[in-house]
Structure formats: C-alpha cells, structure tokens
Design a protein that fits this description.
Blueprint lengths: L1 E5 L8 H6 L4 E8 L3 E2 L3 H10 L3 E7 L6 H14 L11 E3 L10 H19 L4 E4 L1 H7 L9 E4 L17 E8 L8 E6 L2 H5 L4 H4 L5 E3 L6 E3 L21
Parallel strand pairs: 1-2, 2-4, 4-5, 5-6, 6-7, 7-8
Antiparallel strand pairs: 1-9, 2-3, 8-9, 10-11
Helix pairs in contact: 3-4
Length: about 240
C-alpha cells in the first residue's frame, strides 16, 4: 500500500489526482507542541476523504512539553478539523525534535509514553511512532516495540530496525517522491504489506471493502489495496525525517 504525508508546506493539493496516481492513504499534519495547528489540516482532510483515500493525522512532538497535554491538543484540533478516531487511521507521533539533547533520554521516554497513553485512553487505540533509527535509538531505546513503527530511512531498503522493534509498519523511503496532484517533491511511503496497513485501521474498518477510482475518461477502474510499484523518485539520500 502506498501513501504520502503532507503539511501546509505541501501547498495546494489535488486530492483527486493523488488518488488517481495510485496512492492509498495520506497522513496529514494536525498539530505541534501545545498551541500550534496546521492551517490547512481541515481542508486536506476534507479533500482526501472526498477522494476516497484512507487518512490519518500526525503530531510533531516537542520533547520539552508534557506528552499528555500535547495528546489532548492533537485530538481536540484534529477532531475539530474532521479527523474520526473511530474510523480513520491511527494518530502518528512525529519523533524528530532537534531539542531532544537538552532533555535527555529518560525524560523523553516519559513524554512519549504520556502522549501514547493519553491517546489510548481517549480513543482506545495506540499510536504509530515515526522517526529515524538514529533518533529512536538515541532517545527512546527499547520499550516501545509494541507500537507500530513508521521508519524514516531514505534508501533503496529500510535498513536495520531501531532497538525494540521486530518489524516496520510504514516506511518513508524518500522525501523527494513525485506524486500527481502534489506540487514539487513529496514525502512518499509504503506499508509492509496489506496486513501492516490493516494494523493502522480500527477493527471494523480493517475488513476488506470495495473502493474504485475512475480515470478522467471513465474507462480505468482500480480497486483500492491492489499492489502498486513504488512511485517515481526524483532524489535519494539518507537523513532523518522532515515532517516539521
């Protein structure tokens, strides 16, 4: 399963073209810290939903702020923007704060756990954890492997896993993908098979469902979830994520 992640930096997005390009899902930035929200989140959610894409939201974690407060801020603003915890994909937590060094690993683990616990208390579901191997190994260590991993690693292969994980659920393999409907380079992702994708959905939504996409001529129909090749990339290189 293929997907993209976007924020206001992505500009105007033609969601119909994104869907026709063969993308199955999108993660949309909702919030950051305890008082920042992405100004286009609601518009992106409405457009992606209308185009028939699966969608989720992500929060950019500030490691110096309480995790539970950030989780409440994320869900409050995301739900106001149209996110549906009971039917949409898991909330994703973006772990790449460059200020982590000022906090230390122990404090950061508490912040992350506080965020995840608050999300689970309110939605009944955990989180998808995003980050590079270097960031996760340095600041989380082992202890979070029960949560799905969204691995940022810009290469031809996912590479070694961070400590504590036995597999990845989503792999962000480039920040320079070319996707119809998105102006300029785009973060592109794939899931580790359909079963991994199903882990991102609530049980009721994980059951197979028919969904089709029709071309501009009306003669091309593709069922959602069909196997797709990776989209064309316009760059390469390995570095940590660029969600912020």
């Amino acid at each position: 399963m293929r997907g993209i992640d976007v924020s206001h930096w992505s500009g105007t997005v033609s969601w119909r073209d994104v869907s026709r390009d063969g993308q199955d899902f999108v993660y949309i930035k909702a919030t950051e810290g305890i008082n920042r929200e992405d100004p286009v989140c609601a518009r992106y959610i409405a457009g992606a939903r209308k185009a028939g894409l699966h969608l989720g939201v992500y929060h950019y974690l500030h490691t110096r702020l309480p995790g539970d407060v950030q989780a409440r801020w994320c869900l409050d603003r995301a739900e106001a923007a149209g996110y549906r915890p009971g039917s949409d994909m898991l909330v994703a937590l973006d772990l790449e704060d460059p200020m982590a060094r000022a906090r230390g690993a122990g404090a950061i683990r508490e912040v992350v756990q506080g965020f995840v616990d608050a999300i689970k208390d309110r939605t009944g579901r955990g989180c998808l954890l995003y980050g590079s191997r270097a960031w996760l190994d340095t600041w989380l260590g082992e202890g979070f492997g029960e949560y799905p991993l969204w691995l940022a690693h810009y290469s031809a292969e996912p590479g070694p896993l961070p400590k504590g994980w036995s597999g990845w659920t989503v792999w962000q393999y480039s920040d320079h993908g070319s996707v119809d409907g998105v102006m300029g380079p785009c973060d592109v992702n794939r899931t580790n098979g359909r079963s991994a994708f199903m882990r991102l959905l609530p049980p009721a939504e994980a059951a197979p469902r028919a969904r089709v996409r029709v071309s501009t001529t009306g003669d091309t129909i593709r069922a959602a979830g069909a196997a797709n090749p990776l989209c064309e990339e316009r760059g390469s290189g390995v570095r940590s994520g660029t969600h912020g």
